[in-house]
Each structure stands twice: as C-alpha cells, then as structure tokens.
Amino acid sequence: MAYTLWLRLAIAGVGVLAVAWALRRRAMFSLIRGTPVVDAADAQPGDRVAVSGTVELVDDDAVVRPEFQDDDAVVAAWRTEEFRTHRQHTDSPTDVVDDGQTFSQNWEEVSTGYRSTPFYVRDDTGRVLVDAGANVRNEPAGVAATGTLGNSVTDGETVVSFSSFEAHTPKSFDVTAAEAAGASGQQESIEVPFSPGAEDGEREHEEATLEPGDDVFVLGEVTRTAVDVDTDARSERTVVARDSGPFVLSDRGRTELLVHSGFAFPAAVVGVALVAFAALAF
Fold first, then answer.
1. What does pTM read for this prediction?
2. Highest mean pLDDT among 14-28, 102-116, 140-154
3. Among 9, 39, 114, 164, which residue's beta carbon has the most beta carbons within 10 A?
4. pLDDT digits (tens, 9 = 90+) for 182-239
5. What three-state secondary structure class fits 167?
6. Which residues of 133-165 are buried (b: 16+ CB within 10 A; e: fewer)?
C-alpha cells in the first residue's frame, strides 16, 4: 500500500512538473512571437523590440575572458554540476544498497551564471548598444519567470541562451571560477560500494560564449544612455537587461527560438494525463 501511494505521488509530481514546464515554455513562445522585430536604426526608447545582427565590440578592451577558452568574448556563461552521494532511507530499486544502508547518486547543479560586458548589435541599418549585465549569477535551480529555452542561464526575467555548451571536466575538488562566484564547496567523499562513471565529488563544467562577429538575437526594452565612443560622449540606443522587464539574448535566430519554445502543448497534455492516471489508475 505504501509503495503504491509513493508511486502515485511520483507520477503526479512528474505530471505537475510537465505542466509547469509547458506553461513557462508557452510564456516564452508568446513573448518572442509577440515582440516586434525591428531594424537597429528603428529601435526607439520605451519600446520592447527584438533585433538581430552581429556582435561588435565597443572598444578593443571591452571584453570578458572565459574560464575555459582562450578567445575574448562579450558574454561568457557557465553551468557547474557535481556528482554527489547521499545517504537515503528509501526503498527505491535504483539506489545503491550495502549492509542495510541506502545511497542515492546523481549529478546536481551547484552553480550557474554568466558575465558580460556592453557590446553592439549591428545590422545593415545601424547598431544598438546591449548591456546584458555584469557579474550576474543565480543560485542553482533558478528559473526565469518567462520560461526557459534549453541551454540557458536565467536570472529573474533575463534569459541568456546558447545553441550549445562546451563541456569541461576537471577532477575532484578543483577550485573553479564557479566557486569563486559563490558556489558551495565540493562535498567530501562518501565511501559507497558502487560508483559508476564518476567519482564522488567530481565536477563537470559547461561553458558557452558570445564573441565578436557572432550572430545574435536580442529582445528587450530600449532606453537611452550616454557612453564614450571615440572619446566623444554620444547618446546611444541601449537594450538593457536589468530592471527593464523580460530580456532574451541568444546566438540562435528568432525562428529557432520559437521552435525550441513551441513544445508547450504536447508537454501540457502529457502532464495532465500523468496527473489523471495517478488519480484514477490505482
């Protein structure tokens, strides 16, 4: 009886998560589809717009240095996971059991975030200055209010999304940039009878960058700011990430982002079906 109850709760929990995921994806799809795409020259202060173009440096020194790559970038994002073992008191058949002790082993996210410097997005008509925020990071399991796109780092309503992350896997207990940014220290090793594929405490790091010349899509509210360009202070159109409502920055085009955010309905159907099954099948 207890096993059946836990199984029903687990199925219902997966269903609820699927529905929540679908709602976030639907919100992101609606945001991208409902935001007008304009030329850089037509971006007007006060408007929420989307602009596509290529990355251009404000000046040669306006870069950030990624932790695992040599090329300078304007945005460098990371995700860090750690292989952890926990003592459990469950009867799950997937747990490791030895001498009456039960262990659960899995990869857990311990840090995610990004760093950036202001840069231009240029198209055939002109350019806009983009400020995605500096030294921004969020705690593990942070979820953007507007949803996620996959391969993304989120912070509030800010979503920085990439087509892919490159994996880097230092061995256990290395000090990393993610730790310096505030991630918790690596756990001490727990002796277990079986540890497939990874050492306890081992960390895997993934990184993605946006570099000069890369194609980029940016969505956000346009404001005015004064910056020094060629020693002359001029008024620049700026798409601001922080405190300006929803903001999306990606190396994927608008069409690809819509495809990635457009699976909300099937996920919602599956989620509702799982909840109904959990309620009625047992």
1. 0.71
2. 102-116
3. 114
4. 555 544 444 444 445 566 677 777 888 999 999 999 999 998 875 545 445 456 677 8
5. strand
6. beebbbeeeeebebbbbebbbbbbbbbbbbeeb
How many alpha carbons lie under 13 Å from residue 39 in its C-beta half-sphere? 6
Which positions ≥6 away from 184 have C-beta within 8 Å?
110
Q: Torsions phi, psi of 187, nearest 5?
A: -75, 155
Q: Could you write out the DSSP letters of every residue in the chain?
A: -HHHHHHHHHHHHHHHHHHHHHHHHHHHHHHHHHSPB--GGG--TT-EEEEEEEEEESSTT--B--SS-SS-BSEEEEEEEEEEEEEE----TTSEEETTEEEEEEEEEEEEEEEE--EEEEETTEEEEEE--SSEEE-TT---TT---SSEEEETTEEEE-S--EEE---TT---HHHHTTPPPPPPP---S---SS-TT-EEEEEEEE-TT-EEEEEEEEEEEEEEETTEEEEEEEEE-TTSS-EEEESS-HHHHHHHT--HHHHHHHHHHHHHHHHH--
Q: Are 25 and 148 in contact (CB under 8 A)?
A: yes
